[in-house]
Design goal:
The structure is a homodimer of 208-residue chains. By secondary structure, chain A is α/β, with parallel strands linked by helices. The first copy, chain A, has helices at residues 15-27, 38-43, 64-72, 89-97, 110-142, 146-155, 161-168, 172-185, 191-206, and strands at residues 7-11, 31-35, 51-56, 80-84, 102-105. The A-B interface holds A 87-93, 96-97, 102-103, 105, 155-159, 189-193, 195-196, 199, 203, 206-208 and B 87-93, 96-97, 102-103, 105, 155-159, 189-193, 195-196, 199, 203, 206-208. Chain A binds a DNA duplex (30 and 30 nucleotides) through helix 6 and helix 8.
DNA sequence: GCGGCTATTGGACCAAAGTCCGATAGGGCG
DNA sequence: CGCCCTATCGGACTTTGGTCCAATAGCCGC
């Protein structure tokens, strides 16, 4: 498994459009997968590697915008580039507010699309990295016992062992034991690292 | 100086539009200031309290989009809501990519504009809070001597005093002295707080 | 009930951090 | 030339944090 090319998913009901987009995008070095409808795309297994989505806005069944909404609640974010023949302003604004990377109207310049794809893939890679980090940290947190979790929360507050013990109604000695286990389970080499792990849970997710 | 109402800055070359917008917006409880051109707005002193900008896209001289670009390099971010009579998709996409809160085409619903203003002001308040925090921290960092700054950087790495001393070619004892001064000047009560101050410099600014 | 996990603590001990004291030395400035 | 800031250390001491070994007790599942 070497690092393969990013995958561009194209969802468009027009077969000729799918064909021409496939030619254009694959010639730029991307892998391409096409779908004739939003439903077909949703039935497909979520992508594992770097990728982005090219959506036609107008489609029978779910529209591109509706697909975007449906994916907003999904586990990972997707980078979406919209293309449309009959776009209006409110449509494009809605798409962009929904986090779309770009919104192109036909006819568009090939290099504009490729540039948008590049940005979208880059965004996807960033998002994936963040998600991977967060879920990695969450996995470590889940290995903590309830008590360890409490101690963890107070340690990253900057409280002394003594104070933590008082707050939890246990001895300082016990705090030390839990604390050591927390450092071990969280794989933190110092308090500074531990604080970053704790803050990373919120910060990375919030940075949008 | 009590907490006064948020100020909505309206920039539009059409006097009748300015008048009707002023009526609408002030009736919703906002203070309103109008400008006939982008240049007039730029000549105006930057706002101190919560505010947002309503920009017409088409204007003689600098357009709304150009004003947005000009403000992008400014000290603080502005929350911008665009309104336009003849908007096209590429225009709206550009505005949204540039961080606009909304992009409305005339004729628009009054409540849509007021909702957009509300979101824009809320965003402005958030941004101002973040900027205030960052500049506060930066001010503290500036009071550090060069050596203290170096020690500061290494402490938040999680390094031990001994290691820091070795890295800087000074004794552990000296590190302690600097470290104590850093904690004092940065007003941090614990290493955890210090780490948050250090990380806050980057994180808050990056969260966009 | 036995084994394992969790939570709790004790003692001993070492390493690290923080706090007082004082000291030296170079640079910039009135 | 004194004065202050900065940077550098030393000693002495206390408080914290971390580690190792060992022990008790409750709970859960097989």
């Amino acid at each position: 498994m070497t690092a393969s090319a990013p995958v561009v998913f194209v969802v468009d009901d027009d077969a000729s459009v799918r064909k021409s987009l496939t030619r254009l995008i694959s010639s730029a070095g991307y892998a391409v997968k096409t779908f004739a409808s939003a439903r077909d795309y949703l039935a497909h297994a979520p992508p594992k590697g770097p990728c982005c989505l090219i959506l036609d806005v107008r489609m029978p069944g779910l529209t591109g915008l509706e697909l975007q909404e449906a994916l907003a609640g999904a586990a990972h974010r997707r980078s979406i580039v919209f293309i449309t023949g009959h776009g209006d302003v409110s449509m494009s604004v809605k798409a962009m507010k929904g986090g779309a990377v770009d919104f192109l109207t036909k006819p568009f310049d090939s290099k504009d699309l490729l540039a948008a794809i590049q940005r979208a893939v880059a965004k996807d890679v960033r998002d994936r990295g963040d998600e991977a980090k967060v879920s990695d940290i969450q996995a470590r947190v889940r290995t903590l016992t309830p008590r360890e979790t409490e101690v963890f929360a107070l340690v990253v507050t900057g409280m002394l062992n003594k104070q933590i013990g008082a707050a939890l109604g246990i001895g300082e000695k016990t705090v030390k034991v839990h604390r050591a286990r927390v450092m071990d389970k969280m794989r933190a080499g110092s308090v500074a690292e531990l604080v970053r792990l704790a803050d990373g849970l919120g910060v990375i997710a919030a940075k949008e």
